[in-house]
Each structure stands twice: as structure tokens, then as C-alpha cells.
């Protein structure tokens, strides 16, 4: 009897020990999964901290300044001045953005040239352009310092690339499908942000590497009046004047004839009365 009781207790002990072992294994596995997930989330959530640290560490050796200039020049010969300015642009390694010439009236020709020249030759190009003018009517130069903005973009890009590398490493080690999907989604967002930051940095680099200059050229022109051939055609003018004189004579003769014939009765009466008066006066004179 005692032996049976001992065997029963021993079996119960083995059963309890087996259950306890299984619970420990499940608990350990769960803890391990939670640690892995926590590690991945901590890496992703630490993105902002990495950005702040990287931003403080990143420094730039030279300032990033966007230069722009507007010149208003008077020139003696617009075409020659325009050609010389465009040649200078090519000589300095720049390029012409826009060039046009137009007339406002017969006495004024104007032109506008917009160019981009390397930042290193910005001041030299302004001096050369002003040297082609007879008068500098206006000059406006501006500079926008974007150094801080560029440094911020550079720091954020460095941080995003670090996050990208970590996500790629997590993706290699991921075993569960749900973890792989989550990492892929986070990686796509980070890579899109990297493309945006890279584009913004390239834009600032281009704007600071090349300066934009807009030049307005004006040329006063003296217009010599042309010879009017109509005014110098003597024969035509003579015929015209002769015809005018003949018309005046014809009009005068026609007027006289019309006056005489139209007033003939009155003229006859006046003529008869005048003859009678003349006869009376003559007869009295004889007496």
C-alpha cells in the first residue's frame, strides 16, 4: 500500500515538473520576441534623437549664399554689347537663361539678358558688364544666406541614412512575416524622405554654385527723317498747280457769264437810265 502511494506521488511530481518546464519555455520565448520587437521600435523611434545629435555634429567649411543681381545699362550699340556680354558668360563657364531684344518706338531699342555665372566669377562678371555700358542706370545685388538650412538638411540626411542601414539589417534578420512587412513599410518611408532631402540639397548647391544676373540694356537711337519723294516730284506738282489755276479761271469766267446773263434785264434798265442821264447832262452843257 505504501509502495503504491509512493509511486503515485512520484508520478504526480514528474507531471508537475513537466508542466512547469513548458511554461518556462513559453515565457522565455515570449520575452525574447518582445525584446526583438522592442529593439526594432526603439531604433525607429530614436530617429529624432539621431537627427538632433547628427545636426550638432555636422559643420560646413564654407557658407552657402545665393547671389542675385539686376543691372540696368545704357549702351551705344546694343547688339555689340549683347554679344560681348554673352561671350563673357561663356568664358566664365556660365550659361544664358534668356535673351531678347525689342523696340518700344522708333527711337529706342531695349534688350534683356538673364544669365547664370559661377559664384567665383560673380563680381568679375558684374564689373565686365558695367564696362560695356556708357552709363550705369541701376544696380541691385542681393545675397541670401542658406548655410543653416543646408547644414540642417545634411544632418537630417545623415540620420536618415543611418536609420535606413539599421532597417536593412533588421530586414535580413526578420523571421516573422508581420515583422518583415512592418520593416518594409518603415524602410519605404525613410527612403522617400532621403530622396526629398537629397533633392533639396542639390537645389541649394546649384543655387549657391551659380549666381543669377539679369541685365537690361537700352540704346537711344537718332532717327534721320527720310526724303519724301512725293514732295520732290516737280512735274506732278506743276501739273497739279496748272490744273488748279485753270479751274480758278474757268470758275471766274463762268461766274461772270452767269452774272451778266442772269442780271441782263436789270443791266439793260440801268444802261438805258444811264444813257438818258448822260444825254441830259451833255445837252445842258451846250447851252
TrEMBL record:
The keyword Transmembrane applies. The keyword Transmembrane applies. Residues 25-48 are annotated as: Disordered. It comes from the Bacteria. Residues 1-23 form the signal peptide. The chain crosses the membrane at residues 256-281. Residues 63-277 form the DUF4349 domain. Keywords: Membrane, Signal, Transmembrane, Transmembrane helix. Coiled coil: none annotated. Residues 25-40 have a biased composition (Basic and acidic residues). This is DUF4349 domain-containing protein.
Amino acid at each position: 500500500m505504501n509502495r503504491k502511494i509512493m509511486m503515485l506521488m512520484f508520478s504526480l511530481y514528474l507531471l508537475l515538473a513537466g508542466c512547469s518546464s513548458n511554461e518556462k519555455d513559453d515565457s522565455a520565448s515570449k520575452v525574447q520576441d518582445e525584446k526583438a520587437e522592442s529593439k526594432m521600435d526603439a531604433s525607429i523611434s530614436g530617429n529624432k534623437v539621431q537627427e538632433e545629435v547628427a545636426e550638432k555634429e555636422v559643420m560646413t567649411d564654407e557658407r552657402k549664399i545665393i547671389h542675385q543681381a539686376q543691372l540696368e545699362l545704357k549702351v551705344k550699340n546694343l547688339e555689340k554689347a549683347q554679344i560681348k556680354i554673352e561671350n563673357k558668360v561663356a568664358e566664365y563657364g556660365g550659361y544664358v537663361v534668356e535673351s531678347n531684344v525689342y523696340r518700344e518706338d522708333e527711337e529706342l531699342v531695349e534688350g534683356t539678358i538673364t544669365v547664370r555665372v559661377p559664384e567665383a566669377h560673380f563680381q568679375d562678371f558684374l564689373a565686365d558688364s558695367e564696362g560695356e555700358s556708357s552709363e550705369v542706370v541701376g544696380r541691385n545685388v542681393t545675397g541670401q544666406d542658406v548655410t543653416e538650412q543646408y547644414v540642417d538638411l545634411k544632418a537630417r540626411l545623415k540620420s536618415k541614412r543611418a536609420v535606413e542601414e539599421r532597417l536593412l539589417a533588421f530586414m535580413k534578420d526578420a523571421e516573422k512575416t508581420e515583422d518583415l512587412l512592418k520593416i518594409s513599410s518603415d524602410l519605404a518611408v525613410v527612403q522617400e524622405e532621403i530622396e526629398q532631402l537629397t533633392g533639396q540639397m542639390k537645389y541649394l548647391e546649384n543655387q549657391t554654385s551659380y549666381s543669377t544676373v539679369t541685365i537690361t540694356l537700352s540704346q537711344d537711337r537718332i532717327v534721320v527723317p527720310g526724303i519724301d519723294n512725293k514732295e520732290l516730284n516737280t512735274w506732278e506738282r506743276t501739273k497739279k498747280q496748272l490744273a488748279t489755276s485753270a479751274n480758278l479761271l474757268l470758275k471766274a469766267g463762268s461766274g461772270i457769264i452767269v452774272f451778266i446773263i442772269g442780271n441782263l434785264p436789270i443791266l439793260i434798265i440801268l444802261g438805258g437810265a444811264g444813257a438818258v442821264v448822260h444825254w441830259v447832262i451833255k445837252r445842258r452843257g451846250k447851252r
